Amino acid sequence: AQSVAQPEDQVNVAEGNPLTVKCTYSVSGNPYLFWYVQYPNRGLQFLLKYITGDNLVKGSYGFEAEFNKSQTSFHLKKPSALVSDSALYFCAVRALYNNNDMRFGAGTRLTVKP
Amino acid sequence: NAGVTQTPKFRVLKTGQSMTLLCAQDMNHEYMYWYRQDPGMGLRLIHYSVGEGTTAKGEVPDGYNVSRLKKQNFLLGLESAAPSQTSVYFCASRGLAGERPSYEQYFGPGTRLTVT
Known about the structure:
The complex is a heterodimer of chains A (114) and B (116). With 114 residues, chain A is mainly β. Chain A is 0% helix and 53% strand. Chain A contains no helices and twelve strands. In chain A, strand 8 and strand 9 (73-78) form a beta hairpin. In chain A, 37% of the residues are buried. Chain B has strands spanning 4-7, 10-13, 19-25, 31-38, 42-49, 56-57, 65-67, 73-78, 87-94, 106-107, 111-115. In chain B, strands 2, 4, 5, 6, 9, 10 and 11 form a seven-stranded mixed sheet that branches. Chain B has a four-stranded antiparallel sheet with strand order 1-3-8-7, with no helix packed on it.
């Protein structure tokens, strides 16, 4: 079975500072890893994914994430946070062999203060 | 394209009542999913479908039924609503592995259901 842990319920950063939202995963075999963002009263929007290849993946809105196999982590990063980045962020994982069992983390609320 | 749409957006039910949530997608996606979102628990998969006429159970299927009579629609039914089913329900879809983009799911705006 696969699972995802987002160890921080809340992350606060000042506008212009770098941000990191943490994610660790557990899966048998090679993982597919995803980050989604949810704005208030909206559905989840895809940000980026790691399937194979370079460990550093770039996504929408200037976000990037680094896949670290030895630490089983997939932390989301952005060099310079914007107030508009404030939202709920979800990490998700599914096993390579299982098309339909994607597990989501509990979510991390990011607040960027002016 | 409208993407993934859900109706209704809000609903209040009394315990024991039934209702159906409708999900529609216009991207010709094969896979469709129903999730529920509860505070502090992320999204949990209720049921899913890998194509027209097929459905399967997810992580938390009890108390729900689904149908996929048409490729573009995925219905979620609650036969006898319970307060524990108060939640926000999201539908999602994705394409086949050979299509681009394929791995990520596309989500609808959600249905907020309250059972009293």
